[in-house]
Automatic annotation (TrEMBL):
InterPro entries tied to this protein: KH_dom_type_1, KH_dom_type_1_sf
Originating species: Noctiluca scintillans (Sea sparkle)
Signal sequence residues: none
Taxonomic classification: Eukaryota, Sar, Alveolata, Dinophyceae, Noctilucales
PROSITE patterns for the chain: KH_TYPE_1
Protein name: K Homology domain-containing protein
Domain K Homology: from-to ranges: 38-97
Entry-linked Pfam families: KH_1
Keyword annotations of the record: RNA-binding
Molecular functions per Gene Ontology: RNA binding
């Protein structure tokens, strides 16, 4: 669902998006110190990670002074998390989300995998 952000055939930045694509992925910032990081989280762990109505995620964003958004990709049963801020802000949010994800997996009674696939 990220495939249509940039159309390889037309090289058009305004390539049409499908209806089920999240609208949180943005073009790079013109500011040198602003970046965007993305994470994919399984839907079954979403409440444990984000809190009710995303309250945990909102609090993290306010505390760090960055922008954190999420979108649901129903076809894949996942949530896309987009973090916009400086490198330190993005790294901290990624660590928090990853830690909560591991806690949610352990709470299910399973042990998290030792590797990360790219």
């Amino acid at each position: 669902w990220l495939a249509h952000i940039y159309s390889q055939t037309t090289k058009d930045r305004a390539a049409p998006k499908k209806a089920d694509e999240p609208d949180i992925v943005r073009w790079p910032s013109l500011q040198a110190d602003v970046m965007q990081a993305h994470m994919v989280v399984p839907s079954r762990c979403a409440n444990a990670i984000f809190g009710r109505a995303g309250a945990h995620l909102k609090q993290i964003a306010v505390t760090l002074g960055c922008k954190v958004q999420r979108a649901v990709c129903k076809g894949l049963n996942t949530h896309l998390v987009a973090i916009t801020g400086n490198c330190n802000q993005c790294a901290i949010v990624q660590e928090i989300v990853h830690g909560r994800h591991m806690d949610a997996i352990r709470a299910e009674g399973t042990e998290p995998e030792c590797h990360v696939g790219v």
